[in-house]
Amino acid sequence: MTKMTDLTGAPALPLNTIMAGDCIEVMKGLPEGSVDLIFADPPYNLQLKGELHRPDNSRVDAVDDEWDRFSSFASYDRFTQDWLREARRLLKPDGAIWVIGSYHNIFRVGAAMQDAGFWILNDVVWRKSNPMPNFRGKRFTNAHETMIWASKGEGAKYTFNYEALKALNEGIQMRSDWVLPICNGGERLKTETGEKAHPTQKPMSLLHRVLVGSTNPGDVVLDPFFGTGTTGAVARMLGRDWIGIERDAGYREVAHRRIADVRPFDKSALQVSTSRRAAPRVPFGQLVERGMLRPGEELWSMNGRHKAKVRADGTLIGDDVKGSIHQVGAALEGAPSCNGWTYWCFRRDGKTVPIDVLRQQIRAEMEDRPD
Amino acid sequence: MTKMTDLTGAPALPLNTIMAGDCIEVMKGLPEGSVDLIFADPPYNLQLKGELHRPDNSRVDAVDDEWDRFSSFASYDRFTQDWLREARRLLKPDGAIWVIGSYHNIFRVGAAMQDAGFWILNDVVWRKSNPMPNFRGKRFTNAHETMIWASKGEGAKYTFNYEALKALNEGIQMRSDWVLPICNGGERLKTETGEKAHPTQKPMSLLHRVLVGSTNPGDVVLDPFFGTGTTGAVARMLGRDWIGIERDAGYREVAHRRIADVRPFDKSALQVSTSRRAAPRVPFGQLVERGMLRPGEELWSMNGRHKAKVRADGTLIGDDVKGSIHQVGAALEGAPSCNGWTYWCFRRDGKTVPIDVLRQQIRAEMEDRPD
DNA sequence: ACTACGTGTGAATCCCTCC
DNA sequence: GGGAGGGATTCACACGTAG
């Protein structure tokens, strides 16, 4: 493949392009710590009946059952370890990875991810609303696939747009089981002869939820098993940069045309709900400095059971306790911690008002005139 | 343990008893090829670190028991390989095994099962209808556990009561995802002091479906991690013989009393597992994920007086208001509440269509294969 | 008897910034 | 890098008590 470098001599990222070749080799040529998210839909590769192929496409010549079984699992494991090692190298320290699979391969993949140092955050079940039935009635309808979401390592940071996903789910925390239809109808890519362009095309709704939940606009998303480019199409739609790797020229061609047709959403639609966590921090002392609360004034706990007096330095003093609004609240409640902003109230004109109202006033002013 | 033999000199099966001791050692003393089904609920190796509190400051009662602590993945893997080897030895040639776990351990267990020669038939997802939320909002609600169902080896026969399961599922082929509540209320075993008798008691409805589906009356069911004996209780109820292995004397005592109380062929568990299903809630965000509405697209109020723009996370943004379809509708109308589904319309081909039409489409799809 | 409301709790790898 | 401290964060049920 072509080696690209930027002006500093560091290899540049080939953003929004489909790279040709084996993903392990191609990833070796990309710079370490450069990617925000990896979405991988690796080959399931474990149909031991009939033929079995190594990652390099050579056919495994079975001698007997024992040898064949050992050889095939071991060869799939080596392949998995190899691409996972390169994938992890490419991730930024606060990057994350999603891998999708079925019971044929997902257990080996999950164990390999843990062995490679990834830290599993959730396994997410894609529950298909319209799966193919088990025609022979010998097993359960295979109605789901499993995704593993993992950070780069134990304690590593990662992106999780909690509020946006909660909003997507009408105000209820998003669960680890997602009910979504399989990809068919107009979304399913076809060849000129009307056949499926790719046997395992994933629905865009699945990628939408993955990318809204674990990336921000402008992030770089890598898909090492690009296929017909669902990841790229949704990334472009959502204003994320993407890189695809695919060794099949036919799939690359379909993906290229498909992504070129995508109209990105406009910027304002990409702004998603955020939590208070992202809001600027307001020290309680500022309420006193600005005269919103007077030193000596009494605050009352939300439940009305406790009171404390405001001091000029923005601390509280109650019976035998003094400290921050949080510390005094925790001490009075005998709790391990306490959010003083939602715990304390002041009184004006006979009404009891949470002090958080004052913080919101300050934040509103800051939005008009940011520092 | 005591060695038992029957009249022919072959070791006899200690049917319908709880054996004391470490399951690997105990299994070594049982005869090869003697068991029809194994249900195993091994330690999950949760690796919990500090304490966790709910937003109301109450402390979560974590699984911190000694039996769930392993020094490393390697030591957990050795343990898993050892008990799986003995389990497989005990199975009849046409026997089968179920193992339940979470993302902490299930990938390692699944890979070890394949390595041990088991042949996976399905992975089955237990979708909890009432899981514990993720209190800190840092991950998805961990709302499911995974069960692996496997035969003794590739091509081995196994029991699958297809019609019985179909009947259990109101005439529709049983899928690989089962919606069942966690074990609480009256079914949850308590000590005299009112604490949980076992931290991870499984619901009887789960075992009911497993045993109805993959055993016949008179079959022998072995549970090497017996705990407080859910497997034994359901087996007795359904007229199956059972063997439990448990090393904790306290758990054995609770299980013994519990199983003695079971009336065989009680139909109560059946009623639990076929509990009625509520009308499915469809989040508005799903219309966006599924491409039925585009982020950036405008919606119009039914009366034509207001409009708002759809965002990628399924919220709306109008003049000075943003939030859910319901919130924005209420704000624009100055009303205390608003049903956004009937309030908002989208435009296609010059026609104005209520968004509720799209929700009805999704519900219709779900009715094809409910659960 | 029935409803309304408050409380308790479940296999959990659950914060982040600043000094 | 470790410790301190601000302050953000929950859904579905079962059960008990009040009205």
TrEMBL record, chains A, B:
<keyword id="KW-0949">S-adenosyl-L-methionine</keyword>
<keyword id="KW-0238">DNA-binding</keyword>
<dbReference type="GO" id="GO:0006260">
    <property type="term" value="P:DNA replication"/>
</dbReference>
<keyword id="KW-0489">Methyltransferase</keyword>
<keyword id="KW-0235">DNA replication</keyword>
<dbReference type="GO" id="GO:0009007">
    <property type="term" value="F:site-specific DNA-methyltransferase (adenine-specific) activity"/>
</dbReference>
<dbReference type="InterPro" id="IPR040843">
    <property type="entry name" value="RAMA"/>
</dbReference>
<feature type="domain" description="DNA methylase N-4/N-6">
    <location>
        <begin position="35"/>
        <end position="255"/>
    </location>
</feature>
<dbReference type="GO" id="GO:0008170">
    <property type="term" value="F:N-methyltransferase activity"/>
</dbReference>
<dbReference type="InterPro" id="IPR002052">
    <property type="entry name" value="DNA_methylase_N6_adenine_CS"/>
</dbReference>
<dbReference type="Pfam" id="PF18755">
    <property type="entry name" value="RAMA"/>
</dbReference>
<dbReference type="InterPro" id="IPR029063">
    <property type="entry name" value="SAM-dependent_MTases_sf"/>
</dbReference>
<dbReference type="InterPro" id="IPR001091">
    <property type="entry name" value="RM_Methyltransferase"/>
</dbReference>
<dbReference type="GO" id="GO:0005737">
    <property type="term" value="C:cytoplasm"/>
</dbReference>
<dbReference type="GO" id="GO:0032259">
    <property type="term" value="P:methylation"/>
</dbReference>
<dbReference type="InterPro" id="IPR002941">
    <property type="entry name" value="DNA_methylase_N4/N6"/>
</dbReference>
<dbReference type="Pfam" id="PF01555">
    <property type="entry name" value="N6_N4_Mtase"/>
</dbReference>
<protein>
    <recommendedName>
        <fullName>Methyltransferase</fullName>
        <ecNumber>2.1.1.-</ecNumber>
    </recommendedName>
</protein>
<comment type="similarity">
    <text>Belongs to the N(4)/N(6)-methyltransferase family.</text>
</comment>
<keyword id="KW-0808">Transferase</keyword>
<dbReference type="GO" id="GO:0003677">
    <property type="term" value="F:DNA binding"/>
</dbReference>
<feature type="domain" description="RAMA">
    <location>
        <begin position="267"/>
        <end position="366"/>
    </location>
</feature>
